[in-house]
Amino acid sequence: MIEVKNLKKSFENEKEEFHAVNGVSFSVEKGEIFGIIGLSGAGKSTLVRCINRLEEPNEGEVLIDGVDILKLSKEELLKERKEIGMIFQSFNLFMQKTVAENISFPLEISKVPKTEIEKRVDELLEFIDLKEKKYSYPAELSGGQKQRVAIARAIATNPKVLLSDEGTSALDPANTESILSLFKKIVTQYKMTIIMITHQMEVAKDICDRIAVMDSGKIIEENTTEELFRNPKNKITRSFIKNLQEDAIEEKLIAEKFKGSVYRLGYGESTYQAPILSRCMKNYDVELSIISGNVNTIGQSSVGHLNIEITGDEAEKEKAIDYLKENGVTVEEIK
Ligand SMILES: Nc1ncnc2c1ncn2[C@@H]1O[C@H](COP(=O)(O)OP(=O)(O)OP(=O)(O)O)[C@@H](O)[C@H]1O
User: Fold this and answer.
1) Which domains does the chain have, with CATH numbers?
2) In the prediction, which pLDDT does 45 show?
3) Which residues form the ABC transporter domain (predicted)?
4) Which of 89, 105, 93 is nearest to 136 (CA)?
5) What pLDDT, on the 0 to 100 scale, is given for residue 245?
6) Is pLDDT of 297 > 70?
7) How many angstroms separate the CA atoms of 183 and 189, rounded?
8) 46 Cβ inside 6 Å of ligand 1
9) Is the pLDDT of residue 273 over 80?
10) Does 237 sit in the ligand 1 pocket, CB within 6 Å?
11) What is the ipTM of this complex?
């Protein structure tokens, strides 16, 4: 069980003290997936980094099965960190190491015997379904595959808790889905506890047992996912849920209104500035109508989606879709 009590972390800005985490308390049971959702700047990353002391809190307690992480000496903390795995939005893999070497790293630090390391690495590769990439380098992997390796590395020492700091935010919907399934597998197979922070309600809603909403360094609402959706009390919570419902309404309207095939295109940093759609229309005998779309800035990168209707001959449509996919756009058929 993890208990966070009255956690505080402030930063000295030019003139005054800024309270990034301002008296946060919550507890998470073993085997639970606990989501912390909030807008940019709410203090989510700082909070989660205080849990494993990547950031030193000013005040409070972080108890993992009764052990207060904040009271540990540097040496004791190094040992206890084995109990806390963490993954990041940007994967943070060692680029000069192979997949197997990345996963071995925490085991080597923990002085696990070589033969045991080899066995554990193979077991983890099987678990994340990436056996064939054992000797590949991170640069040779897709974003989703990189995050699976980062997860294997984070859980290699069989920690009690896995912290995810926007672990799916850089991924397209299909890869997000596969990472969320992996989270579920970690909880059922290894009985770990997961604390995940996200700014996306659609990510939290399908997987979290309970969700806490954070704003200005405080938890402003906390409930089981079902209850939070049924009866959101705070304005910010309601706006997270409303956006989600608007997406669902939009998709229903699209299905009713448009005669042709409708697709949802997902694009990221490498694709959103390129004139892929206009080239697609030039190269193939199809018409593309934009229905709706958006761009979100996540950290340094921009990701977004476009809903489009494609009309034209079936064979041409297929070629156009292949062209989009070849150019790094994810294509999901809505109707
Ligand atoms: N090292 C630091 N020094 C000064 N201020 C900081 C530091 N780290 C974070 N902050 C501030 O604390 C606040 C909370 O930041 P934090 O990264 O925890 O928010 P967040 O909810 O994770 O947002 P995002 O999703 O954009 O990362 C922000 O206003 C940020 O500018």
Assistant:
1) 2-241 (3.40.50.300), 258-333 (3.30.70.260)
2) 95
3) 2-241
4) 93
5) 64
6) no
7) 10
8) yes
9) no
10) no
11) 0.93
Q: Is the CB of 49 under 6 A from ligand 1?
A: no
Measure the CA–CA gap between 143 and 139, rounded to whole angstroms.
10
Residue 298 pLDDT exceeds 50:
no
In the predicted model, what is the mean pLDDT of residues 143-170?
94
pLDDT, residue 235, reads 86
State which amino acid sits at residue 304: G
Tell me, using a 6 A CB cutoff, whether residue 299 lines ligand 1.
no
- CA 44 to centroid of ligand 1, rounded, Å: 8
Alpha-carbon distance of 182 to 175, in angstroms, equals 11
Atom number, ligand 1, closest to the C-alpha of residue 47: 18
Q: Give the Cβ contact number of residue 76 at 10 Å.
A: 12
In sequence order, what DSSP letters do the residues of 198-252 get, joined into one string?
A: ES-HHHHHHH-SEEEEEETTEEEEEEEHHHHHHS--SHHHHHHHHHHHHHHHHHH
Alpha carbon distance 9, 43 (integer Å): 9
Q: Is the CB of 41 under 6 A from ligand 1?
A: yes
Please name which of 22, 24, 23, 13 lies closest in space to residue 195, comparing C-alpha atoms: 24
Hey, which of 45, 51, 164 would you mutate to test ligand 1's pocket, going by the most ligand atoms within 8 Å of its Cβ? Answer: 45
Q: What is the 3-state secondary structure (H, E, C) of 74-88?
A: HHHHHHHHHHEEEEE
Average pLDDT over residues 79-83: 88
Distance between Cα 278 and ligand 1 center (Å): 39
- Statement: residue 158 has pLDDT above 80: yes
CA geometry: angle 5, 68, 213, nearest 5 deg: 30
Q: Which atom of ligand 1 is nearest to the CA of 55?
A: 1
The answer to whether the CB of 55 falls within 8 A of the CB of 3 is: no
Measured at the CA of 90, the angle between CA 223 and CA 307, to 5 degrees, comes to: 70
